[in-house]
Design goal:
- The protein is mainly alpha-helical and 438 residues long.
- It is 50% helix and 7% strand.
- The protein folds into two domains: 56 residues, no CATH class; 371 residues, Alpha/alpha barrel (Glycosyltransferase), CATH 1.50.10.20.
- The protein contains 16 helices and six strands.
Length: 438
């Protein structure tokens, strides 16, 4: 049995009041059944009680009822858009007006986004409402990778898709690698399938690393290629977490490229590969620096507790060197910390979040990157971001349950999948937090 101590609590699950205890001067111990899953969130889950108090529970961050209804509508629409071969498609850059998901061919990038959304919203290969659709998507992506010639960097023969044109030529391998990493823990009961996925993940990683330019960006960038480079960095980090063969120099170069797009001292943002849009570049900067910034913050906090540093000590090269960092590492990590702290605020500024002026797939991707960054960093501001962004996204949902872009990436399938990933990011706190712990 797990225990929860409180002086007045209303316990909610699925929007239902399970039980309530009146406020008391004495602390009450509640015995929780073993089958209640407890996980660590950035700050613990806070339930507002019927008595106006707050009770902290180290458990799942509950999805608000209105957000869950929005997610359910989106899922209902998107599963109907699946092709018979198991894939989903975004369509051609030259026909952005085509909104019928069955009038466009399936592509690996879009299929990966939808598959990750199904996984994050509660379906696995063996359980959940859309287990069958997820299994078909996995087999589609395995087939796409296994049938790719070794001397070809792209994992599809399609060209000119909305996703490729706007994000970059290698986005299919990038997003497919991310999906393979995400689903790896759900394959333990099928050793043969897990081995196939591991092999496919390594193939994608190799192609991503071969496509890296000398400055750390990913070649073949599209209109907002900075997003392809940022997503490639995240994909390599996730693949490394799952034991893939990663070139550490290439990964560090990728992180540095993203960090260098933002100057924390001046607030200036490089947007030459971000279509001139601050949001696209800065969301990549905050994502690439999140893991290193968390390491610095946690080690500084521990050093203060142990008396190695004064309580008022700030992150600096000198203070990090006192903790045993070399000067080179201290400079790199202090820069990461500064970039993260400054760029996370920039990325959430309302004027910046408007992006191009109206929503396209690039805006939805940028919101997703910012939210995941906050969780990777174990950042206490995550809850406020989640409330604000959820409200923003729910206000623009279409009547049929989908979302679509109004410029560039207009595909309702891609935009709906990305939005579902953002609205359900609270379901992935444990995995994303673990990524920041490596």
């Amino acid at each position: 049995m797990a225990t929860l101590k409180t002086s007045g609590l209303a316990l909610l699950a699925g929007g239902l009041l399970l039980f309530a205890l009146p406020p008391s001067e004495r602390e009450t111990t509640i015995m929780l059944p073993e089958d209640i899953t407890l996980c660590t969130t950035p700050q613990g889950c806070v339930f507002r009680t019927i008595f106006g108090e707050e009770a902290s529970l180290q458990g799942e961050y509950p999805t608000p009822e209105n957000v869950q209804l929005s997610i359910d509508r989106g899922l209902s629409w998107i599963v109907q858009a699946q092709h018979p071969d198991g894939g989903w498609g975004a369509g051609s850059h030259h026909r952005q007006d085509v909104m019928d998901p069955h009038a466009v061919p399936a592509d690996p990038a879009t299929t990966s986004m939808v598959a990750m959304a199904l996984l994050r919203t509660g379906s696995t290969l063996r359980s959940g409402e859309y287990a069958g659709e997820l299994k078909k998507a996995l087999l589609y992506l395995i087939q796409a990778v296994e049938s790719t010639p070794t001397d070809q960097l792209k994992i599809t023969n399609l060209s000119g898709t909305q996703i490729q044109t706007k994000l970059g030529d290698h986005i299919d391998a990038v997003l497919t690698a991310q999906f393979f990493s995400n689903i790896m823990d759900h394959l333990n009961e099928d050793a043969e399938l897990k081995e196939r996925v591991k092999n496919c993940l390594n193939i994608c990683v190799d192609k991503i690393q071969q496509a890296q330019d000398s400055d750390g960006s990913t070649r073949g960038s599209g209109w907002a290629g900075v997003l392809q480079s940022s997503l490639a960095t995240s994909a390599l980090e996730a693949a490394e977490h799952n034991g893939a063969d990663i070139d550490e120099i290439a990964l560090e170069r990728a992180r540095d490229y993203q960090k260098n797009n933002y100057n924390p001292a001046t607030g200036d943002v490089k947007t030459d590969k971000g279509a001139g849009i601050v949001l696209y570049s800065v969301s990549g900067s905050v994502r690439s620096s999140a893991k290193a910034a968390r390491k610095v913050r946690e080690e500084m906090e521990e050093a203060k507790k142990e008396g190695q540093l004064k309580e008022e000590a700030e992150v600096s090269v000198e203070n990090l060197m006192k903790l045993g960092y070399t000067r080179e590492d201290a400079m790199r990590y202090s820069t990461s910390f500064e970039v993260y702290e400054s760029s996370k605020n920039k990325a959430q500024d309302n004027a910046v979040m408007t992006g191009f002026g109206n929503n396209g797939g690039e805006e939805f991707l940028s919101y997703l990157q910012t939210g995941e960054s906050l969780i990777v960093n174990n950042d206490e501001s995550w809850e406020q971001w989640y409330r604000n962004t959820s409200n923003r996204l729910m206000s623009i949902q279409n009547e049929n349950g989908s979302w679509n872009g109004h410029h560039c990436i207009t595909s309702p399938v891609f935009c709906t999948a990305t939005t579902l990933l953002t609205l359900s990011v609270n379901n992935d706190i444990q995995r994303l937090t673990a990524l920041g712990n490596d």
